[in-house]
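User: Structure with KG4, tokens only please.
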Amino acid sequence: MKKKILIMGIETSCDETAVSIIQDNGTKPPKILANIVSSQEEVHKKFGGVVPELAARSHLEKIEMITKKALKKSRVKLNNIDAISATAGPGLIVCLSVGFNFAKSLSLALKKPLIAVNHLEGHALSPMFKSNIKFPYLLLLISGGHTQYLVVKGLGRYKRIGTTIDDALGEAFDKTAKILGFGFPGGPKIEHYAKKGNQRRYVLPKPIINRGGCNLSFAGLKTAVFRSSKTIKNKQDKYDLAASFQKTILDIIYKKTKIAINEFKKNFEGNQIIVAGGVAANNEIRNIINKICLEEKFTSIFPELDLCSDNAAMIAIVGLKKFKKKKFSKLDFSVKPRWQLDKNAKFLKGAGVQL
Ligand code: KG4
Ligand code: ZN
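Assistant:
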């Protein structure tokens, strides 16, 4: 009988302390035995965003306890784990260091391989817990720190075809929510209050909608929301602005995703688009992607909700794929606060972009 493989995943790149244990028995998609996520929402709420030092301290306080919880939940003994995988970037350096150094100590103590994982690759492969995913596929990665269209050709093989030239989509949701006084994290709040509002009430800009291929831009939209917020008089005005903001996002996603799909069709076989990252939890975004898929004869795949936002199961699945290919990391591997999936893609953020 084929040996079962047990992989531990550790994630501390931002404000979630997470540990997962997954099992692969060689045939079916791997099974998640434990996926423990401890959010720091309460710690950062009053600051309206993540404070790196506080986040790192909280990871330090919790990492051991979360690991014990994951072992207990999965009924796996630490000694039986085959490899320790952990996020090594991109992310906040102080936060990454906590989880990755913890993984190094475990690897050393247990004499088991250490596997450094790119957080974005975790999002990219998070749908692999379902069985029907085929390379290559188009990935729309929408989170608090990243917004990219990527062609996923295989493990470690990515081609970025579009990216935000300023803010990430999750950041735009969070900043809009902050302006409207809805709190942090803003995405779910905007989605909730938008249901009560009139999406046609405010006309907001759609930056670079007609240029730049499937690159995106949200900074001008945020500024426009800020300006419009000055005229707000009551709750209904707030709901209307939230609804108008979300509708503008949907229009941008509709147009740019169509461009990305057509770009994909020109160069690759395949008909799947996967939407991953925290913002992929948004139902309206899911609906617009499904509409596009009907028009373009594409299939949409969304990870389960608990695998959309930051978690360690997605880190463990990358760990598993690398384990099978014996892609281990040395103990002197350093965390990489900036680590792109497509090695040839330029850093566009803040640097200006040719459109
Ligand atoms: O992937 P994630 O958990 O963390 C990062 O790697 O950034 O994404 C977090 C982001 C936040 O900006 C949050 O506001 C957004 O995902 N988000 C949403 C929704 N749920 C979470 N944005 C829009 N609609 C939602 N329902
Ligand atoms: Zn993430």
